Amino acid sequence: MRYGPLLDALVACPLAKAFPRKITLNKLILLIIIIVAGYQFVNKPINLSAHEIDPSCDVVVFTTARCPYCKKARAFLNNENINWCERDINQNPEYRVMYTKLGGNGVPFAIFGSTKVHGYSKQTYQDESNKI
User: pTM of the predicted model, to two decimals?
Assistant: First the structure.
């Protein structure tokens, strides 16, 4: 039976041939949904506060050396005399792993207390720094 190029390719894959019975379209769709749901569950970001990452810091910022918004974030945090720690994800593989597990998807990625902030916005940084 023909379903379309993508589904035909999935039905013809070696995994599908390993099943003793014919795979119906409904079973194939159910299998895809289960795989996607499992992937999302396994890769769900963890939640850690800045103090759990580094007890000496109120804010942890994941950065890279060449990022212009990271430079702005550094300047803001230094000017506000905030107790913060920097984690350059290109210099330390452990920082990269932690950044990924925490849900980082761009830099700067900051954790103010237990609040995650993606990117840099002076107003957001000001608001979050007032809470800690």
Answer: 0.69
